[in-house]
């Protein structure tokens, strides 16, 4: 059921995070105003900066409050200079992923006219869906005795997570067909010719596919499928795969469409959704006003599409479509930020998108 007001938690984070979230909020507000949607935005502090000052990366009360929001928009978290005693970076976004069971990472990769790419491709519009809680990461908390001769990692595929993952993939294929004009097709990437766990993954995929006869499917081995991101990316619509295969192929897909500055993402469960750019906190350009806001703006559009699905609210789809159109127009005509070869700033790009949305 559509809501009168959506509660959105903002987690700007570190580095360029606050700059790109501010930009995305301006665009989001302009987009929802067109449709008469009310947003209640609340900002929470989390990340390396907070850890430096307080010794914790996110307050427990805030982590709970974020879980009660209708959706979350996150900037970027972590700084290479701020580390925990074990040497790892501060990453409360990973804690949130685990805490709220966000098992699917959605990484749409669309080639926009005006964005330089090194790949010979014309119409690329794909969505890579990576499982994020099991697969080859399943055993990362397993206890292990120190061993200097051999070390193993565990790859586990469960039916319950795989069924949920594939349901998300088929729903996304249908939603994209309705709102993006994509064919409504799902490709599974696996290594079912060698790994038993992956043969099981394919079996569950086949079962779920039978429940969605209106969506065409393909199954490819991960090696051949990876090559096709470069040689024939147009063949893909929705691509779904195991954790580490998805980690790698989603970055290849982002590279095909012009890099991290234009690559949005969303981590979702059946109930919760956190949307964020695929890039990190980019401390090398933080505070200079040149961060590309497009990945975060497109993440905000994804957030609206997810809210549309969760609450059966067509207004959110309309607002998301308007934001994507306005962003595509500015990518084509400029201004563009320096990472895309332009001379624009975060502010000039954002101003241009907001103006395009108001017209
Ligand atoms: P993480 O491990 O947190 O994902 P990373 O170390 O891989 O981060 P990023 O912080 O994403 O790296 O930055 C990689 C490079 O891309 C840097 O040179 C950075 O300046 C650039 N970059 C990242 N995001 C943007 C952006 N939005 N606009 C312009 N340049 C960016």
TrEMBL record:
SUPFAM superfamilies referenced in this protein's UniProt entry, alphabetically: Isocitrate/Isopropylmalate dehydrogenase-like
BP GO terms, sorted: L-leucine biosynthetic process
Pfam annotation, one family: Iso_dh
GO molecular function: 3-isopropylmalate dehydrogenase activity; metal ion binding
SMART domains in the cross-refs: Iso_dh (SM01329)
The keyword Manganese is assigned to this record: yes
Obligatory cofactor(s): Mg(2+); Mn(2+)
Enzyme Commission number(s): 1.1.1.85
Domain Isopropylmalate dehydrogenase-like as annotated: residue spans: 7-353
Matches recorded under InterPro entries: ICDH/IPMDH, IsoPropMal-DH-like_dom
Highest taxon, organism lineage: Bacteria
Top-tier EC class: oxidoreductase
Keyword field: Amino-acid biosynthesis, Branched-chain amino acid biosynthesis, Leucine biosynthesis, Magnesium, Manganese, Metal-binding, NAD, Oxidoreductase
Subunit architecture: Homodimer.
Family: Belongs to the isocitrate and isopropylmalate dehydrogenases family. LeuB type 1 subfamily.
PANTHER family assigned to the protein according to its UniProt record, in alphabetical order: D-MALATE DEHYDROGENASE [DECARBOXYLATING] (PTHR43275)
Listed name of the protein: 3-isopropylmalate dehydrogenase
Source organism phylogeny: Bacteria, Pseudomonadati, Pseudomonadota, Betaproteobacteria, Burkholderiales
